[in-house]
Predict the 3D structure of the following.
Amino acid sequence: MATFYQVALPALHKLMGRTTQAPLRLKLRCLDRLKKRPGRIDFQRGILDYEGDELVVRSVGAQGSHILSSMSRANCFIILSAEQGTVEAGTKVEVQPFSSL
């Protein structure tokens, strides 16, 4: 599903002649520790929420591509660069809300 949203959907829009803007991406504090090995970009599913008056993101939990329930609970992608390893709780991460797709 992440590949569809990141690659296929923009390609389909282009083929349809639509002019598109780059999707909205935010830098937000992540409430959870995110496991990741360096070497490839990772699009983890997350939940945007408010903690007080601050917009934050948290993981939906298990991230396996076969776990569709995590996609149904998510409202954003947490984008971790190829160079990044595990992200500790409290670190700012790049977030792409689904509404911008």
User: Anything to note?
Assistant: The CA atoms of residues 42 and 80 lie 5 Å apart.
